[in-house]
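Dock protoporphyrin IX containing FE; give full complex structure.
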Amino acid sequence: MYCYDAVDRLIVEERVAQFRDQTLRYLAGELDEDAFKPLRLQNGLYIQRYAPMLRVAIPYGVLSSTQLRKLAEIARKFDRGYGHFTTRQNIQYNWVKVEEVPDILAELATVSMHAIQTSGSCVRNVTTDAFAGVAQDEIVDPRPYCELMRQWSTLHPEFAHLPRKFKVAFNGAKEDRAATPVHDLSFDLYRDEVGEVRLIVKVGGGQGRTPRIASIIKRDLHWSEMLTYTEAVLRAYNRLGRRDNIFKARIKIQVQELGAEAFAAEVESDWAHLRNGPNTLTQDALDRVAQFFIDPPLETWSEPASKTLAIDPNFQAWKKRNLTAHRHGDYAAVTISLKREGIAPGDATDAEMDFIADLADRYSFNEIRVSYHQNLILPHVPRAKLHELFSELDSRGLARANIDMASDIICCPGGDFCSLANAKSIPLSAAIADKLAPIEDEIGAIAINVSGCINACAHHHVGHIGVLGVEKAGEDWYQIMLGGRPDGVGRLGVLTGKSVRQEDVPGVIDRLARHYLDVRNEGESFIAAVERLGTDSFKIILAEEPAAA
Amino acid sequence: MSLVIELDQQGAKVIGQAPERAPLTPPKPANEGHGDVRKKIVPNVKQPTEPTNAEWEGGQYLSMQEWLDGSQEGGAILLQPADDVKKLDGRIGNAALISVDFHRIGDGRGYSHAFLLRKRLNYQGRLRAQGAVTADQVFAMARVGFDSFALRADQSADTALRSLDSFGVPYQGAVVAGTATDRADANFAARVRLLERALVEIAQRHDRPALASSLSAEDMVITDVIARLKLPIDIFTLETGRLNPETLALIPQVKERYGIEIDVRRPDEHAVAAYITAHGKDGFYDSVAARKLCCNIRKVAPLDEALNGRDAWLTGQRRDQAVTRGALPEAERDSERTMQKYNPLAAWAWADVLAYATRFDIPMNALYQRGYVSIGCEPCTKAIRPGEDPRNGRWWWENQGSKECGLHTIQNVTR
Ligand code: HEM
Ligand code: SF4
Ligand code: SF4
């Protein structure tokens, strides 16, 4: 895990002091709302439906147990005893007080954490694969590059007032687990013929009201020019991106209107002046951060072939669903599901966070990851200790075996918390999970995403099944999309028909799932069947009966 | 004309009269979230047409187009957010001033204008930001190349000047991308600034904080910061009666250099006399108990007395000084003396101390040049060879574990 040096520490501490001063001036009436708004947003403070919300960055999803304990303490001291993990590897507190935020930030600073640029029109928290450094299909460990990007983009003086928010993601594995095709700027890392790390650069992906898959604008960027190229992209966006209409201000619109080639040409012409410049990365710079992203001292274990364990069906199910293979054969990465019955997806209480931090200390070298799927991961668990860990998790109701299944729904805060929501998403997710429960095992892997409005915080465009809240005459209605996927080249889901009422959504999804069970080939996943047969063949099923079945 | 802050070699200065402070909009209630926020989103933002201020000290501004159409001999250019700055390439001529108009805080195009003017077009003259220029933007504006700020009418010049110092060592450029030396330099600067911040905070938080100085290089570093920033932190030293003349020489040096009178604390004469009678002047060589008693009389008791009535004390201890200090926190509770104890140099390496000494040219004990690393009382301190454990120079006849005296007991960590 990255360890702050004096430079990192000073920046975070001075940021806290700066925000404390700004908040005091705001509360004293010296700073008006207009001037305070961009300042608080760039420190992660939103004004929400019921209370201010604070979003804390978990850079590229890596947490130490000490940091997780601090997040728990903040939930306890400053919030109502829980936090909400998001798809962008952040944590949100929904009940903070404006005047206490500087104190929260000061607490975070003591464990090398911050809320810098977690909202506002700036470069946001950098995200990547939650299994970075662990996954068997990894080509290049993205974490050092993420950390360099985090530092360079933090408080960049030129790019703090972009037309809109700007999200950056990295993928270094064969399977893209970071949803890079729907990011404003993203990088695929690979090794060229001589083993040098190079990047494929993609821009203009996004969701929201105009979803778009990112365009590749460069295929062979040398890693040392990662920051200079990013600078050129950001300058092209900052200068020429649309500012006349907030709905058209994301970079995807600029890339769309200009064409990817013309956009790339603009970037290249600026980059020509920047390459081999002060922001070109030296080997020293890469080595300096890379030294922190090395394997913990993994040992050789042998898995006990216990008969009693083999017949515990719950353990077997959990093992089947919640484990990810580790590069080291004697270890596994364990996903702890935060999708539990009766609890909002991604929520964890302070006691649970403390508990998971303890487990990380005992089973996973003090390390935890936060995933795009809003779950927590213990990245390095010895296989020999899996049953022990399972029993501990089970005793606290944290062993639900549903990773990547129908009840592992990605869901935004929606109408229960978010002031932008058209409709609720949390109770609907619960209803969908309930409805599919009897056939969940049969369905197997499926990604269901539920967003409360077109802002698409739950990435419904790239869910195998995406649900979007739209409001009709004061009631909660939903559109249902089919066939999206965030990985690989990315694909956007297509609408299945007219919007439906809240109470009808679970039934519609149930019919889509049952249709899949009817038509699938041996061993074929939901999304594979949809792609083989086409979304239309599924839509027809829905059209056969009225939606209000 | 509004208030203008200008930066130059000497620093920042304020030009002009503060206008009547515009009445402030009182902050809205913290929770604006009731009702439907979407209705507050105004989708279309009009492109600015009128400049926020059409005049500068020398008359009317010229628009970029007017400038390009004219002679480019004198006068000032006013750039609008949508202007393509690159058109000025090779045509800046002798502009007296370029001003960039900010119509809204959230429109960041002007920052890229400034970057391009400075770095691409190599413009060296005055570069002003005007319009929606608030105190909180000034720091970032200065970093992209602005050196003149016409503040929005409701902004305070004091706040703007203060905010210019918001960050000591920001990221980007060599700090992130450069060599190991670049980062080491940045880290040194950051470490000094962290120390300054820590001492300022201690001074603010406590009524009567004091530095217990051993006149070591570490304590000279802290003394230097206290003096430079004129902080209300007292400094005392424990004159055991057995210190080297080189050590004692620092007391007048500090006075001369900083005008600071170090409070010199001496042990109780009767106790010292009794010790000498019982154990001999150098009785501490005979046993740990005798050494501890001597330390007790000559250091611990005077220290307790010096700290009496205070609410915090500071030391120059560092983690890598001794096995006993490996977990030294920067702030701890001295529960025996019921006050806060700070070790602001805890994370410093000896190399940092030396770098500080060179950079700020602070008074240093002459013994360092003779191989001493840790300097205490004359009979109990000796030089060490290069590379040897620093503690071998103190109470070398004892074993490592006992080499603390009760002054720095291990305390509960508070952070
Ligand atoms: C007999 C008990 C001791 C007393 C009363 C005592 C007292 C002090 C005092 C007042 C200081 C000044 C604080 C400062 O640096 O700001 C100091 C510094 C220091 N002490 Fe001690 N100390 C004792 C034992 C030790 C021991 C056992 C060691 C090493 C094993 C040690 C090593 C140091 C070092 C390295 C410094 C930093 C400055 C220097 O080297 O002179 N001290 N001590
Ligand atoms: S998708 Fe809409 S409702 Fe959900 S959190 Fe985002 S903005 Fe709020
Ligand atoms: S260091 Fe030596 S001389 Fe000084 S007080 Fe301790 S025992 Fe006595």
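Observed: The first helix of chain A runs from residue 6 to 27.
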